[in-house]
Amino acid sequence: MRTPYAQPPSQSSQLVVQAPQRPPVSTSLAMSSPASPANNSFLEQTVSLMSSVAGYMRLPAIASTGFAAILTSLLYFKQKALIYPSHVPANARTDIPRPSQYNFRDYEELIIPTNDGEKLSAFYIRGSRRGPNSNVTVIMFHGNAGNIGHRLPIARMLISNTGCNVFMLEYRGYGISTGEPDESGLNIDAQTALDYLRDRAETQKHTLFVYGQSLGGAVAIKLVAKNQSRIAGLILENTFLSMRKLIPSIMPPAKYLALLCHQVWPSDTLIASIKVPILFLSGLQDEIVPPIHMKRLYDLSTAPVKIWKPFPGGDHNSSVIEEGYFETIANFMKRVTSGDIPSSREKM
């Protein structure tokens, strides 16, 4: 599952905070060009710190060999801890990089209540207020570890390449959001994010895209399937068919125990119902989610507009630094918002 996270720039230990306060909001955004050294450096930091979480995800597969009874117990009783390692990396629940550390100036740090009593942390980061995409917002759902602050380099590149606004929601039980993560709760969180943007005066008429990476892709699929008239397009990267179908890859000895998994995330049964344009971004060297999962989701999709973009050198975490990644997203968004996209199935 997606685990891209990064430490903030130098002197981060002096800048990281536990409970973010809303900063003064400026009318401008300090942003380098899409391919600037600063942007590339931030992304490289994001990718360079992924190996520890990837190792965490592979640990059950190594440790479980020959321990079927222990594995059965882990899979049934501890699966939430395995699927939602919100404590990884260390201090991920308390050390939250802030947008100001990545030179964002026009942003808000929010706490949003859910209808079941939780309080969710979020960042709303504005792009250009006068650009062509000033009325376009991307809702961003991250992978299963770290926090929204760790994905700020990705948000930076999205804004640099598109000029859009980015809304980053923190799941319950992650970062400083309250609660404990599970499938039903994360689905409530996603709906809360969409409802918030549609109720907020500034964004209620914005064109909305939903962008999900790995676990975030499953969250995105469920949200879009339920709210298609409210969303313009869906962007998926390295996500899986379902959690039960992913288990044999992450924990091979547990392949016969997959039915014990009660965190299902049935993207393979939901994807066919989605009719909004979909962009599939697949790292063909993905070592966590086999690329066949993404290809199968693409094949199952019946969306009139669906685009397949493979990255031959991209693994589960490094696809974001592959050449053309953000340009592909920018082109997809431009074509959807302008109406210049054929009713066909494409490969790029």
From TrEMBL:
Listed Low complexity bias regions: 8-20
Stretches the record annotates as Disordered: 1-36
Domain Serine aminopeptidase S33 stretches: 136-266
Record-level GO cellular component terms: membrane
Gene3D superfamilies: alpha/beta hydrolase
A Pfam family the protein falls into: Hydrolase_4
Protein keywords: Hydrolase
InterPro entries cross-referenced by the UniProt entry: AB_hydrolase_fold, Hydrolase_4
One example GO MF annotation: palmitoyl-(protein) hydrolase activity
Keyword Transmembrane included in the entry's annotation: no
PANTHER family, per the entry: ALPHA/BETA HYDROLASE DOMAIN-CONTAINING PROTEIN, PROTEIN ABHD13
Protein name as it appears in the record: Alpha/Beta hydrolase protein
